[in-house]
Amino acid sequence: MGRLSKKKSDLGISLDEVGESGYRLSCSKSKEWIRDVVRDVGNSDFTFLDDITIQVDVFRMGKDFSARGVIATAFTLPCVRCLEDFAFSLKAQFHYTLCPSDSGEFLPEVEVRRADLDVVYYEGTYFDLVPLLVEQIIVTMPTHPLCGQTCKGICPQCGENLNKRLCPCSRENEKISAFEILKNFPLKQKS
Ligand SMILES: [Zn+2]
Ligand SMILES: [Zn+2]
Q1: CA of 78 to the centre of ligand 2 (A)
Q2: Is residue 153 very low, low, confident or very high in pLDDT (cuts 50, 70, 90)?
Q3: Ligand 1 being an ion, which residues bring their Cβ within 5 A of it?
Q4: Distance 159 CA to ligand 1 centre (A)
Q5: What is the pTM of this model?
Q6: Quick one: 188 exposed, middle or buried, by C-beta within 10 A (0-12, 13-18, 19+)?
Q7: pLDDT of residue 114
Q8: For residue 174, what are the domain limits?
Q9: Same structural domain for residues 107 and 162?
Q10: For residue 47, what pLDDT is reported?
């Protein structure tokens, strides 16, 4: 997980406004906004196609809060096999418990602890949603993005995208492998 920005963002919840019946934040942010937010953590090989929609329900649980929500957007990213950009629609559901930073072991450098990813700490009364958003995008992002399960990739010899056309070298390889199969084909023994 990347470093989280410490500056106050324009997407957050005033916790003192969360009453007993809870609080719902429902909004959308432009693709330019989300692109800038994600650029801060150093991911730049994808392009947002859609605005991001955000819905979060926050409930008070004593000093803690429960934040349950969903984000949705779409972006393009390069396929690891053929290197062509393809569209990926992202929908992430999450559930975090917000604890005051003076409770328990607060690690000042790490707002989201690895061991329990669903616990985050808040300071004061403003809870910034941007780090959660960035984290959800990162964890939902495919680690091995493929434009399709049947993507043929690129030719290691000439670099041709084999989804578009067969290059001369792959036709050559096909001929060789067909020959190899024929050569190794067991001849019927005469009985
Ligand atoms: Zn591909
Ligand atoms: Zn080739």
Answers
A1: 20
A2: very high
A3: 79, 81-82, 147, 151
A4: 13
A5: 0.71
A6: exposed
A7: 44
A8: 152-186
A9: no
A10: 87
At residue 186, the pLDDT reads 63
116 and 156 in a single domain? The answer is no
Let me know whether 55 and 136 are in one domain. yes
Distance 162 CA to ligand 2 centre (A): 8
The rounded distance, in Å, linking the Cα atoms of 59 and 23 is: 7
- Ligand lying closest to the C-alpha of residue 152: 1
Domain count, the chain: 2
Domain annotation covers residue 102:
yes
Could you report how far apart the first and last alpha carbons of the chain are, in Å?
Answer: 68
Q: Which ligand is nearest to the CA of 171?
A: 2
Question: pLDDT by residue (tens digit) across 39-69?
Answer: 766 556 788 999 999 999 999 988 899 999 9
Separation of CA 92 and ligand 1 centre (Å)? 23
Task: Identify the bridge partners of residue 74 per DSSP, sorted by sequence position.
Answer: 89
Structure tokens at 114: 């690895």
**Domain membership flag for residue 41:** yes
Distance 71 CA to ligand 1 centre (A): 26
Cα–ligand 2 centroid distance for 115 (angstroms): 47
81-138 per-position pLDDT tens digit: 999 999 999 999 999 999 888 765 555 554 544 444 588 888 888 899 998 998 898 8
Alpha carbon of 106 to those of 103, 116, 130: distances in Å?
Answer: 7, 13, 20
Q: Judge if 75 and 23 occupy the same domain.
A: yes
Which tokens belong to 69?
Answer: 């929500």
Kindly state whether residues 96 and 162 are assigned to the same domain. Answer: no
Cα 5 to ligand 2 centroid, rounded to whole Å: 45
> Could you give the 3-state DSSP secondary structure of residue 135?
helix
